Fold this protein.
Amino acid sequence: MSATRDLVAALKARLEAEGPLAPPPPVPVVAAPPHRVFPTPRTRSRYAAQAAAHTTALVGIGHVGTRYATDVVLQFQAELAVAHQAVATVLPDGWAEQNGLLPLRSRVAHHRQFLLRPDLGRRLDEASVGLLRDRADKDVDVQPILADGLSAVACMGSGLDLLRHFTEACRARGLGVGTPMCARFARVWLEDEIGQEVRAKVAVILLGERPGLGTGDGLSAYLVFGPKVGKTDGDRNMMSNLHARGTPPAQAAGRLALLAGAMIEQRTSGVGLDLSGLARELGEAAGRGYRAPQERTRLVEVSR
Amino acid sequence: MSLLDPIPPKVLSVKRLAAADPALLRAYGADPARHASLGLVTCDQDDPTYVALDEATKHAGVDVVFARSFYAGSAHASGRLSGEILGVIAAADPDELDHGLSALLRCLERDACFYRADDAGTVTVFPHVVASLGHYLSAQAGLAPGESMAYLVAPPIEATMALDAALKAADVRAAKVFPPPTETNFAAAWLTGTLSACQAAAEAYAEAVVRVAREPRDAPFRDR
């Protein structure tokens, strides 16, 4: 070794010790795997296509190999997210008052308890019972109750519309309608206690239904004649899928008023109620006739 | 390869003319009365070759009659054997010439070379210490044979910053400064002093070049 090389080697050691680590050797470039395309095969049968046109259910969705096509999976995940979101939504404080409704609540303390304890959601808390006794009209024909149920989104969405239409439809039939009210953290059976307190002939609870895929905005209506704590589901009549793609609120309100009127006339509800004379007015809800094809709302667009 | 690793010079050609034509001798600065043989060397690093030519004069009775760098350096050479310098040593006979050539090649192989001043090798530095000058460089530098000299080369901005650092680092004086551009577009300086002073200067020079390469912009101008 020469003197200069020794000198530079010593300097190198000194500089390297003080400086940052030498940069790492470059990472080898890994070749991309061969690109493969899995097209959705055009193997849908005519039967599957026609069947799918009549329902929003996941039928006739095809497959890619042994799996669902990507758009089907994305659509499913998006719809499931809508449903989750609807269940997770809580009716905001003061919403009922803002919309001119008597604010009631069940014995449920918070949202998680609401999901885990259906029994608490079927009874009114002390304050609500007091409110009913002080401010609600008594001895009414029909007591409509708007409630959040399992989808506060639906309650806040078309709930008010349905309540308004229903009230008008009842009045048009000459039925006395009770004070409009809104129950929070409510299960269906809460109508029994409310109806009992206001001594209504028929109690009707309009509440957000458990969301299905892509239907976070669906409402259900449950009607019971002679409400009192202890009524069972056999005593109730109900309509479900009250949303734009099912039965629209305006149409549903007329049918609900018809049902309420029939209950008062026949002095019963549930399995004992005879709907045979009402088939024409109830339309497709009563019969098994032709149903118009339904369009599935696409939350995810996949270009093909 | 990493920081301050040597960059070995490539000797591209070594040729001898045992009895060169007098016209050629005269044209290349030799004296036909004293010189008969010429040894020619091309190399891809010019400054190590100047040091090696000088080294040859210490080991044999040879004179460096011609040594010129080529313009813009070995990356722009006129041919694959041109490199960046042609050095010519002259001797009275071929035997003496061979001794000189082997000393020259030994020096290029084991001693004088450029070093990487950054990890990528895009900046280079030549912080060479000649412990004892031969006839050639001492005459060029205006020093006495046997004196110590720091032979310092770097690209222009690095060389300018580093020369200042070297002059301040040790008790040395500038024998000759070559501001940029030289033929190869580098800048150079010859500093002299005691051997240890030259070594300290060379070390400071190399360190300064590395630091400039690491941080080409001073703090206030870093983002402009």
